[in-house]
Write a structure and sequence with these properties.
alpha/beta, Rossmann fold, nine-stranded mixed sheet, 12 helices, 21% strand
Length: 466
């Protein structure tokens, strides 16, 4: 017996929820790399500001300068550090302008960037390096004690003169400035890269258990970038200015803000960490239009509001994600920042940072507390956990989603990789009627196809293949 469609909710008779947003074309060229998408901006708007450091307030990097920095770094990593396609490079650093430069340079070589929290313990770093099989570490001098036992080549992003006195006498490191000295971007030779190739390996604990490597492809980043900027395009907005104090090692800061906005031609103001006064000063100085944050920052904004010595009139969008935010906090922030959109979104590392986002329209009443509607290009189901039958609106069940932003698989502690089916839920269930299941061991196919298999793994997430 078929379902009854509810068009206003995007719910079809087939039991699938579809995005209510206008369809946005996602680049389909199979040979397109995420850096190709980014560096096109150097042709379209070479003199526009791409990156600026909030603390120093210097001139920053234009899109033409960003292209030069990325390609020169890629040449240096290849010719002087021996990075080859498929190699994993660990980036362990706080936010800085060189962070995205290095990330994009690694991916421009067809290599894999794996990012880590600078607050990780040596044991946690060692585990990730072992899992990812990293061959090089890009970091800062303050974190050298945490990687001393890795015995890997190290590139330091610090200013050489400032950091030299703090280095251990036996440290075998290369300063970034020395690495790129004399290197020309014209020497860059683009290797063959497909959208299906792995671009990044980001570690996520999911809901429980140890962190697991999430395999994200160039396609995932390209699709997610379209999804997180489609509302701006649909409204025909000009270039916007985003502030990024969320950590770039996290998918929120890396995909949703840094790559997603840069590839559209927006400016990203980089902050190493959150501090309320510093953020407000940066918003005023750089005329920031968009601020993405997490619930604790929203609570701070609810207390702060527009009061004080800062001109925040440029701010037209405040978005919260990474954890649920109560409607009461959103209502307070909306009152204190009148005229500014206050929205909430939902995403996971496994979805390259985006699943849904509120889309408020001026003049229309709305109720706070929702995480919005599905992003363009995403389909979903709400499934009864016991029967696995899809559910119509206003029913409680598990969410399953499908789209080109869904990860390629997961690297487990024992180096198992699951290539996932068409539907993914980061909460409890993965479900699809049409599925081919592959179990890979250390990235080599050893499994079998099985249309009626069940596996349970250590995070207590149930993967159901049917």
């Amino acid at each position: 017996m078929g379902s009854v469609a509810v068009p206003a909710a995007g719910y079809g008779a087939d039991g699938v929820y579809r995005s209510l947003r206008p369809a946005a074309p996602i680049a389909s060229d199979p040979g397109l790399a995420l850096t190709d998408l980014l560096l096109r901006r150097a042709e379209a708007c070479p003199s526009a500001l791409a990156l600026v450091d909030a603390a120093s307030g210097d001139g920053g990097l234009t899109f033409a300068e960003l292209r030069s920095a990325v390609l020169a770094t890629a040449v240096a990593l290849s010719s002087r550090a021996g990075v080859r396609p498929g190699d994993a490079v660990l980036i362990l650093a706080p936010n800085c302008m060189l962070y995205p430069v290095c990330f994009f340079a690694v991916t421009a070589l067809g290599a894999v960037a794996t990012t880590a929290n600078p607050l990780y313990t040596p044991r946690e770093i060692t585990k990730q390096v072992s899992d990812a099989r990293a061959k090089l570490v890009i970091t800062v001098s303050a974190l050298l004690p945490n990687i001393a036992d890795l015995r890997l080549p190290v590139i330091l992003l610090d200013d050489a003169k400032a950091a030299a006195s703090s280095l251990p006498s036996d440290a075998a490191v290369t300063f970034y400035a020395d690495l790129i000295a004399g290197v020309q971007e014209r020497d860059y030779r683009r290797p063959p890269i497909n959208q299906s190739d792995t671009a990044a390996l980001l570690y996520s604990s999911g809901t429980t258990g140890d962190s697991k490597g999430v395999i994200l492809t160039h396609r995932n980043f390209i699709a997610a970038a379209t999804m997180v900027t489609s509302d701006q395009d649909e409204r025909r907005e000009g270039p916007n200015v985003f502030i990024c104090f969320l950590p770039m090692f996290h998918i929120f800061g890396l995909s949703v803000i840094t790559f997603g906005q840069l590839q559209r031609g927006n400016t990203v103001v980089v902050m190493s960490r959150f501090d309320m006064d510093s953020v407000m000063e940066a918003v005023q100085r750089h005329r920031v239009t968009h601020l993405f944050c997490v619930p604790p920052v929203m609570i701070a904004l609810a207390k702060h509001g527009r009061a004080g010595k800062y001109d925040l009139s440029s701010l037209k969008f405040i978005g919260s994600g990474a954890a649920p935010l109560g409607k009461d906090v959103m209502e307070v922030v909306a009152k204190k920042f009148s005229g500014t959109e206050i929205v909430q979104g939902y995403g996971m590392t496994e979805t390259c940072g985006i699943i849904s986002l509120e889309y408020s329209e001026k003049g229309q009443a709305r109720e706070f507390g929702s995480t919005g509607t599905l992003a363009t290009g995403i389909e979903g189901k709400i499934v009864d956990i016991d029967t696995l039958k899809h559910l119509p609106p206003n029913q409680l069940g598990e969410i399953c989603i499908r789209g080109p932003n869904i990860m390629k698989g997961i690297v487990w502690t024992v180096h198992f990789v699951f290539i996932l089916p068409r539907y993914l839920s980061g909460q409890t269930v993965v479900y699809s009627r049409e599925i081919r299941h592959q179990l890979l061991f250390q990235l080599s196919w050893t499994g079998s196809q099985n249309n009626d298999s069940k596996y349970k793994y250590q995070s207590n997430t149930l993967i159901i293949l049917q």
